[in-house]
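Hey, quick one: can you model this chain's 3D structure?
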Amino acid sequence: MASKQIDLSAARWRTSTYTNGDGGNCVEVADDLPGIVPVRDTKDRDGGTVIVPAVAWSRFVDAVKGGALSA
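Sure thing. Here's the predicted structure for all 71 residues.
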């Protein structure tokens, strides 16, 4: 299966508000791109990026906020 390259050079990354404060589980998201939400590990920014459809990311965040998932 061929993968489509997505240009993330203009992405504005921010640390997730659900990142814990002890430097352990840290993720960054770029939520300023239409239709997608890139997610990466703060400690390994060059280690790869997971691209999530914006609709799925929104459902995930709602589930976390509602307590259905442990952050």
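One thing worth noting: The mean pLDDT is 84.
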